């Protein structure tokens, strides 16, 4: 099985893909179904991944990271997701937090937080969504009140990946008036007094990582926990989501590619009506469409990654396009793979139904696909306003 076609890759990228594929096949794929069933979060495996440099993909090398491009990153995340989309999804989110600290933090913050994040000795969680502010993130209600040399944070964050297991929480809170300009970003430690967590949510998929509320009850932080400046939090949050959307898009590609590969093997092994199912032209056409759609989605993800690496002003729209298209395509391909397996696809042991469940949430998180359409449409119509 190859998670990523290797044409047009540099030698360095080929080496990254090969090392990540070995890791995914050895440490993720054999355990993915069991982790899902047991709702087990494999912290030891994540720390092994950090040994390959996967804990700080986009963090500069002087701060303990790998210093890779977004183009490199989508190759790695797609390959990782071929072993387990749930774990790859968390790795993407963790890397978003680490990059935001590296990109927006001051020297003291980078020195304090990044080495342990890059080693995955500490994990990072991204805390933007709230019970009453999902897609309308600028309407968040968590508040940070300045009190001398401290801020006091009160509020609740919802659907937070890694909550309870992570040590570092990047929290968006309101320091000013309503709207995006009143939001600031803070670094919260698991051991800060007043921080607690809701129960692990019972979910359709992504069961190999915890999802909980993050509850802030007058959490008192030194002023040096502010990331950037007051009022910059929403801009910081959105800058992280551009890359985060590419990570989730890549996860969808990897999971769907694994489902397609398994379908090829299954159809080659099964016989009906006097021949292999793989030799039936109708099924070959389905496989051809699945492969074509994944290849088209991958091309869009890579185009968006290149744009983000270049600082192209069109990058946010391209990232939204890539996230929408790749997550819709990935889920559709995985669902068709389940159909090609017949009744076996519905059985847990075959692993296909897990991929379908894992990929479904990708159309919701990091901005729903409806919001992706809003972003793209806004870019198209902005000049006409």
User: What general outline do the C-alpha atoms trace?
Assistant: globular
Largest sheet: 4 strands, mixed
Q: Could you give the count of β-strands?
A: 10
Radius of gyration (CA) equals: 21 Å
Q: Report strand order across the widest sheet.
A: 1-4-5-8
If you average the pLDDT, what whole number results?
95
Q: Roughly how many Å apart are the termini?
A: 49 Å
Query: What structural category arises from helix and sheet content?
Result: alpha+beta
Tally of helical runs: 11
Q: From N to C, what is the helix and strand string?
A: HHHHHHEEEEEEEEHEEHHHH
Helical fraction equals 40-55%
Strand portion: 5-15%
Low-confidence stretches: none
Overview of the structural elements:
- It is a single chain.
- With 385 residues, this protein is an alpha+beta fold.
- 50% of the residues lie in helices and 15% in strands.
- The protein is built from eleven helices and ten strands.
- A four-stranded mixed β-sheet has the order 1-4-5-8. A four-stranded antiparallel β-sheet has the order 2-3-7-6, with no helix packed on it.
- A hairpin with a 2-residue loop joins strand 2 and strand 3 (150-161).
- The longest helix has 37 residues, at 233-269.
- It starts with 10 loop residues before the first helix and ends with a helix.
């Amino acid at each position: 099985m190859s998670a990523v076609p290797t044409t047009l890759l540099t030698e360095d990228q080929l080496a990254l893909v090969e090392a990540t594929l070995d890791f995914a096949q050895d440490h993720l794929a054999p355990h993915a179904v069991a982790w899902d069933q047991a709702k087990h979060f494999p912290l030891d495996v994540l720390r092994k991944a950090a040994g390959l440099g996967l804990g700080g993909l986009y963090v500069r090398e002087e701060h303990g990271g790998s210093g890779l491009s977004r183009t490199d990153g989508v190759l790695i995340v797609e390959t990782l997701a071929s072993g387990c989309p749930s774990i790859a999804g968390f790795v993407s989110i963790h890397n978003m937090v680490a990059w935001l600290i590296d990109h927006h933090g001051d020297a003291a913050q980078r020195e304090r937080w990044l080495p342990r994040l890059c080693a995955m000795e500490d994990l990072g969680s991204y805390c933007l969504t709230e019970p009453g502010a999902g897609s309308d993130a600028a309407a968040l209600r968590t508040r940070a009140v300045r009190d001398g040399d401290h801020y006091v944070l009160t509020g609740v964050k919802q659907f937070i990946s890694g909550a309870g297991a992570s040590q570092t929480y990047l929290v968006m809170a309101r320091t000013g008036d309503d709207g995006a300009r009143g939001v600031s970003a803070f670094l919260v430690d698991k051991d800060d007094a007043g921080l607690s967590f809701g129960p692990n949510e019972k979910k359709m998929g992504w069961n190999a990582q915890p999802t909980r509320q993050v509850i802030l009850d007058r959490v008192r932080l030194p002023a040096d926990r502010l990331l950037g400046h007051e009022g910059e939090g929403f801009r910081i949050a959105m800058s992280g989501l551009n890359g985060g959307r590419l990570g989730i898009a890549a996860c969808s590609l990897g999971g769907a590619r694994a489902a397609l590969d398994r379908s090829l093997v299954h159809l080659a092994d099964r016989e009906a009506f006097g021949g292999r199912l793989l030799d039936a032209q109708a099924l070959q056409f389905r496989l051809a469409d699945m492969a074509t759609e994944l290849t088209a989605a991958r091309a869009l993800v890579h185009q968006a990654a290149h744009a983000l690496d270049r600082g192209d002003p069109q990058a946010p729209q391209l990232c939204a396009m890539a996230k929408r298209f790749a997550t819709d395509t990935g889920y559709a391909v995985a669902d068709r793979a389940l159909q090609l397996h017949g009744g076996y696809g519905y059985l847990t042991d075959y692993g296909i139904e897990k991929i379908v469940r894992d990929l479904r949430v990708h159309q919701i998180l990091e901005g729903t696909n409806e919001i992706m359409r809003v972003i793209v449409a806004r870019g198209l119509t902005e000049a006409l306003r």
